Amino acid sequence: MDQINIEHTPPSAAEYLALRKSAGLSAMSQEGAEIGLPNSLFAVCLREENEIVGMGRVIGDGGCFFQVVDIAVRPDQQGRGYGKLIMSEIMNYLREHVPARGLVSLLADVPADRLYAQFGFAYTSPKSEGMWWRQGE
Prior knowledge:
One of its GO terms (molecular function) is acyltransferase activity, transferring groups other than amino-acyl groups. This is GNAT family acetyltransferase. This protein has 4 helices and 5 strands. The mean pLDDT is 94. It is 28% helix and 24% strand. It is globular, with a radius of gyration of 15 Å. The protein has a 5-stranded mixed sheet. The chain is an alpha+beta fold. The termini are far apart.
């Protein structure tokens, strides 16, 4: 890995929106990013010379429910182990802060599900299925 700096702070809204777009994640609104990012329970950003190359966040109520979101690495930086580094930082946070019986969830896109499985995440089906609702555009 090149000289990567690890920061435990959320990115700016502009960085967040640009990174999600470049990584092929769904678009979010500027308004949503400005509200949501400061409310993260935990965030990790990977930077190379002040340029964001990857990020991930944990959101939730801080006691019973936690969700891993926004795992993203710039396409030109993929394949260098940065996704694993982001998840390692997140797992360190989770192991230290999730109380007994706390539930950590995530929505896994294929093939990223293989990364999450390395950290102990398992499919919930057939016992349960993930569902979602999204506010209209």
